[in-house]
Design brief:
There is one protein chain. This protein has helices at residues 2-28, 34-39, 45-55, 61-74, 99-134, 139-152, 156-170, 186-220, 223-230, 235-263, 267-273, 278-288, 291-319, and strands at 76-78, 82-84. It has 326 residues and is mainly alpha-helical. It folds into 2 domains: 2-99, no CATH class; 106-319, MetI-like fold, CATH 1.10.3720. Helix 5 packs antiparallel against helix 10 (235-263) and helix 12 (278-288) runs antiparallel to helix 13. The chain is globular and about 85 Å long.
């Protein structure tokens, strides 16, 4: 297991470096000049050159990337802003703050939104899929399959807008979506994120219901499950000890990827409910052409997805004893 984790960690570092290099080149090789945007309407060539120097973008592109990469480990000095301590993901020329500090300020919001929604769609989605598999071909199975098909065709911005209109403004059964620190007011934290949790979980619940059902139906027909039944084990023991455990592999895989993407910023959900997380930060960075901030969010998002995949692979050995990681 240790050798596997070391290999995956090294591979993850290499992958993140490649992603950061490609993203850096794509962002900083675009025709739009960040210095010209920061310079304003009245901008002389001399002022433009000073701003390029202050932003650290006056050097050739490979040298810029090297300075950015070195800043992650040793920090970096920006002539126009000051010192950026390690780990430094750059300096935003829009809000005049280090990228990492802004990302860390927004991360608790996205983390709360992602974890809460994940709990909801895992409990409801996996539970509904298991019930549908047990009642295969019956009314409950058809109801769960039909509901999941309808829910999976919904869009978050459509469902979220309707939910806001009716549940918040018309019927007043839920609070206005917002983020409050859990340590400050747990009740306000829960009530402010409840509606976004439910809306975000709606789409994922449909996918997990269908996947859980198909995996459970397939596993219930496996030889080892039929052998367990033939030995006289109870239906509950066969279902939870053998069938459920054997069907969880693909579900854990998809969950790891989904959670990594959500932690990188649930952009549409945050935009729909005006929640200031990483998703909204990325959207704002695009609109203001804040390339250092957008690059930092992209790298962190990719890191979440890669780490989630490593954790999923490591969990396989715990879920399925037939798998051994060397």
């Amino acid at each position: 297991m240790l050798r596997f984790l070391v290999r995956r960690f090294i591979g993850a570092v290499i992958t993140i470096l490649i992603i950061s290099a490609v993203t850096f080149i794509l962002f900083y090789a675009v025709p739009r000049d960040p210095a010209r945007i920061a310079c304003g309407k009245v901008c002389t060539p001399e002022t433009l050159e000073v701003i390029r120097h202050n932003l650290g973008i006056s050097d050739p592109l490979p040298e810029q990337y090297w300075h950015w990469l070195a800043g992650i480990f040793v920090g970096r000095d920006y002539p126009g802003f000051g010192n950026c301590d390690a780990p430094c993901l750059g300096y935003s020329f829009v809000n005049r703050e280090p990228v990492l500090s802004t990302v860390l300020d927004r991360f608790p919001t996205t983390f709360s939104l992602s974890i809460g929604a994940a709990v909801v769609f895992l409990i409801i989605g996996v539970g509904a899929g298991m019930l549908a598999a047990v009642k295969q071909g019956k009314a409950l199975d058809k109801l769960a399959s039909g509901a999941s098909l309808v829910a999976s065709s919904m869009q978050i911005y459509f469902v979220g807008t309707l939910a806001m209109y009716f549940l918040v403004y018309q019927w007043h059964v839920m609070d206005q979506p917002s983020y409050t620190k859990l340590s400050d007011n747990p009740a306000a934290w829960f009530s402010g994120l409840l509606l976004p949790w439910l809306v975000l979980a709606l789409i994922f619940t449909a996918n997990y219901t269908r996947m859980t059902r198909s995996q459970m139906v397939e596993t219930l027909n496996e030889d080892f499950v039929r052998t367990a039944r033939a030995k006289g084990l109870s239906r509950r023991t066969v279902f939870f000890r053998f069938a459920w455990r054997g069907a969880m592999g693909p579900i854990v895989t998809i969950f790891g990827i989904d959670l990594g993407v959500l932690l990188g910023g649930a952009m549409i959900t945050e935009k729909t409910f005006s929640i200031q997380g990483l998703g909204m930060l990325a959207v704002k960075s695009v609109s203001t052409n804040d390339l250092p901030m957008l690059l930092g969010v992209m790298v962190i998002t990719a890191s979440f997805v890669i780490i989630a995949n490593i954790v999923v692979d490591a969990c396989y050995a715990l879920i399925d004893p037939r798998i051994r990681l060397a």
